[in-house]
Amino acid sequence: MTFRTADLCDQFSETSRLQIADPLFKAFGSAGSFSGKIVTLKVFEDNVLLRTVLEGRGDGRILVVDGGGSHRCALMGSNLARLATQNGWQGIILYGCIRDSVEIGAIPIGIRALHTHPLRSHKRGAGERDILITFAGVNFRSGHYLYADEDGLIVSEIPLLGESADA
Questions:
Q1: Are 94 and 79 in contact (CB under 8 A)?
Q2: Phi and psi at residue 155, in whole multiples of 5°?
Q3: Are 37 and 143 in contact (CB under 8 A)?
Q4: Residue 102 contacts by C-beta under 8 Å, 6 or more apart in sequence?
Q5: Rounded CA gap, 83 and 161, in Å?
Q6: Is the pLDDT higher at 166 or at 156?
Q7: Which residues contact 154 (CB under 8 A, 6 or more apart)?
Q8: Would the pLDDT of 14 be above 90?
Q9: Residue pLDDT, tens place only, 68-97
Q10: 8 Å CB contact between 117 and 100
Q11: What does the DSSP assignment read for 39-68?
């Protein structure tokens, strides 16, 4: 389903409680636009739980990861991006860094992250899933809807493109 976030803002900003993310993110992955129901994750410099979540069925959802904004290591690389695509995730919003950016650029998934960093993360297994997380001026909740394209990232409590709220 094609959309433009600018058009969604024009159409719904008066009638819906849209949240628009601060423009902090760089685009990675070959999908320029993507949308879906949100799943939240909070980790810090540790990607064990991130891998565990991506190993599960994505069912067209978007994984939103609060990585604490760390610029000291990458939380994901091309292996996790491929895993996400294979398991049906539409996209990943990462408040942190990625690595393997050239390889990720060829993978058919939408990824937004702060930057790149060559160092991999720790492997301790710490983190929380399906909790309220806040960054870039937005409160992200599992079950809400995210729409991202080249112009930005918006979040809505309700589906905006005719998606089923039960999906």
A1: no
A2: -130, 140
A3: yes
A4: none
A5: 27
A6: 156
A7: 5, 8, 9, 18, 19, 20, 21, 146, 147, 148
A8: no
A9: 999 999 999 999 999 999 999 999 999 999
A10: no
A11: EEEE-SSB-HHHHHHHHS--TT-EEEEE-T
- Cβ partners under 8 Å of residue 118, min gap 6: 74, 99
Residue-wise pLDDT for 41-77, tens only, equals: 999 999 999 999 999 999 999 999 999 999 999 999 9
Answer whether 0.85 is exceeded by the pTM: yes
Q: Where are the alpha helices (DSSP H) in the chain?
A: 5-12, 48-55, 78-86, 101-104
Output the CATH code of domain 5-156: 3.50.30.40
* Chain length of the chain: 167
Instruction: State both tokens at 21.
Output: 């993310």
> Are 43 and 34 spatial neighbours (Cβ–Cβ below 8 Å)?
no
pLDDT in tens, 131-145: 999 999 999 999 999
Q: Domain residue spans in the chain?
A: 5-156
